[in-house]
Here is the input.
Amino acid sequence: MVQYTTTVNASLEKVWEDLIYKIDHPEHFVPGVSDVILFEKNTDFVSRQMTVTTPETTTILKEKITFVPYKVRFLLVDHPKLEGYVDNDIRAISDNETEMTFTINWTDKTTKEAVNNFEMVKNAVLKTKTFIENR
Here is the structure.
């Protein structure tokens, strides 16, 4: 498990709205995302597929996303190498500041070892923070 926390200069309500927006539009938050397909969307969960391209690989993955104030969970349903989930949690610090924590709990399907990419988590949090504060 890898975790990164930062303070976002926005209200809890605004950060929550943007985390919900992230479900439909991950390309603004996750580098290399394209071809986002929403299979199912209701009040309990969203099922989606997307392509993530890095300099090394192109991966098509499917997720089941659940959301209850103030947590969004991205559960990997189909991924060629990984299993697990990512949580996006927020809590109010003040009227105009929100603490945002991303926790990545991924395991390699073959080795069963935890994926510990701190820089990736930190970059994802900071990219989301920048998007929210500039939107």
In short: Residues 118-134 form the longest helix (17 residues).
